[in-house]
Amino acid sequence: MLPTNLYRNVPWRRFSRGDFPFTILKWEYVQKVFVHSFGCRASQADGAAIEASLESRGLAAVAHPGDADLVVLNTCTVTQGADVDARRTIRGLHRDHPNAEILVTGCYAQRAPAEIEAIEGVRWVVGNSHKTQIADIVLNASTNAGGPDYHGQVFVGDIGRQGEFRATPVNDIRADRTRPNLKVQDGCSNRCAFCVIPSVRGRSRSANLDSILEQVRDLADRYCEIVLSGINLGRWGRDLPGQMRFIDLVKAVLHETPVRRLRISSVEPMDWSRELLELFASDPRIAQHVHLPLQSGSDAVLKRMFRKYRTRHYATRLELARQLMPDAAIGADVMTGFPGETPEEFDETLRFIEEQPFTYLHVFTYSERPGTAAAGYGNSVPVDVRRERTRILRSVSDRKNEEFRRRMIEKTLSAVTLEERGTALTSNFLKVQMAQNCEPNQMVDLVIGSAHRNTLQERELLPIVP
User: Fold this and answer.
1) Residue 274 lies in a domain
2) CA gap 161, 28 in Å, rounded
3) Separation of alpha carbons 94 and 391, rounded Å
4) 298 and 419, same structural domain?
5) Do 177 and 152 share a structural domain?
6) The domain boundary residue, chosen from 130, 157, 184
7) Closest alpha carbon to 277 in 333, 316, 231, 309
8) d(CA 65, CA 92)
9) Domain count, the chain
10) d(CA 218, CA 222)
11) For residue 306, what are the β-bridge partners?
């Protein structure tokens, strides 16, 4: 009986006896890898690309870290909590699976490699600057097996010097996923006072249009829905020859690929032009889903954050989106407890959110990030006050989402079936429990019968009695 490690038959020696050539095979060990990504859709896309690059070099992806020889953790650092989660995960993995080698990459690895290097069990720390080289780093180390101990080997460079988009093409994803994320933009050239991302991702850089179209065509052959993601997605094209715009990319994908559903992740408010919203409303292949980061509903707080819009500008985008797409999902990111946020400013945010047609919110509690402008502001809001404000806004979000879901009863919604059997995700970003199980990755039309906590229920059709 073979060991639990994965082996495969490979050619060893070839012989020819007369007119009958033959090959003797041998068993070859195949290293197994588990990749886990924290954080945003762009990070999830990075994780899929890392996994694809390792698989293309002969490693086998597995679904559980206990089965892996190599564990790759693709980290986030947007909040202090994200750093804590990463450290806790690293220590837990090393404790539970001491024979697995651990490679830590992503934004936390870029920002604080020394912190991660010092954690027991970490063999490699690879920043975003070297993320596309992970396969080479791992395989070169395997080639040099038996050499010196490389614990804590660090690969981190100046991400700010990168002037072009770098990512491993994702031609496929694991079989248990049905909605691939395709990252088409990286970095951010804005300097919001609270945000560490520009320092760990670099300035805004766009993927080449032809490369994007090639990948979309390939993915569209196998998946009903493709999600375009980026760090500042609406800035796509600004750094490419010809000063292209994000809407040019969306039009090209729709006109030049067979994509059946295209979902767009978060786009900054100032990049939601009337033309872009009208395109969303006019083409059924685009998911009816609009996400605009808000951060605060107080103009005074937005000014301190160095955000480039005010609430009146933001509200006009939402008004137009709701007018053009009455049943669209409309979401936002909101931050509570930014330095100096007074009770009156929080009340402004609360009132603004109540007045807007949001269907969901991602609410975050402000976290001090080293090197950001806000970290030096002082006048911090007590942590318990921040958390209470977060609780209040999440309660508002839950109520608004419930009201939105109830509005969908008796409507027919287009959806894509998910890997979780019996569930589907609608164009307007609602999960539906289906009346019957259906194979994943199918486009279906569902009549909504009822709304329950966090989900919708498909109406069960009664048999017709003759």
Assistant:
1) no
2) 41
3) 34
4) no
5) no
6) 157
7) 316
8) 11
9) 4
10) 8
11) none
Distance, CA of 328 to CA of 430 (rounded, Å): 10
Contact 325, 290 (CB under 8 A): yes
**Domain contains 270:** no
Distance between CA atoms of residues 233 and 231, nearest Å: 6
Among candidate residues 305, 300, 373, 375, the one with its CA nearest the CA of residue 333:
305
Average pLDDT by consecutive 10-residue portion of the chain (466 residues)?
38 54 50 93 90 91 93 94 95 95 96 95 95 91 51 84 75 64 94 94 95 95 95 96 94 98 96 97 97 98 97 97 98 98 98 98 95 93 97 98 97 95 96 93 96 91 49
Residue 135 lies in a domain: yes
Choosing from 137, 157, 177, the residue where a domain stops is 157
Do the beta carbons of residue 430 and residue 405 sit within 8 Å? yes
Q: Measured in Å, how far apart are the chain's first and last C-alpha atoms?
A: 59
Alpha-carbon gap, residue 217 to 171, rounded angstroms? 10
Q: Is the dihedral of CA 34, 40, 42, 45 positive or negative?
A: positive
Q: Quick one: CA dihedral 383, 385, 391, 394, positive or negative? A: negative
Task: Give phi and psi for 460, each to the nearest 5.
Answer: -85, 125
Domain co-membership, 191 together with 261: yes
What is residue 261's three-state secondary structure? strand
The range of the structural domain enclosing residue 445 comes to 412-458
| The residue count for the chain | 466
The tokens for 142 are 């395997």
Here the contacts of 140-143 (C-beta below 8 Å, separation 24 or greater) are: 142/31
Torsion angle of alpha carbons 83, 85, 90, 92, nearest 10°? 150
Interaxial angle between packed helices 209-220 and 246-256, expressed in degrees from 0 to 180 and rounded to the nearest 10:
40
For residue 216, give the DSSP letter: H
CB distance 366 to 393 below 8 Å: no
Q: What is the CATH number of the domain that holds 253?
A: 3.30.750.210
Query: How many Cβ atoms sit within 10 Å of the Cβ of residue 425?
Result: 22
Tokens of 450: 């009822």
The CATH number given to whatever domain includes residue 316 is: 3.30.750.200
CA dist., res. 234 & res. 239, Å (int): 12
Strand, helix or coil at 106?
A: strand
Q: Are 309 and 447 in contact (CB under 8 A)?
A: no
pLDDT at 355: 98
| Structural domain contains residue 316 | yes
Question: Is this prediction's pTM over 0.90?
Answer: no
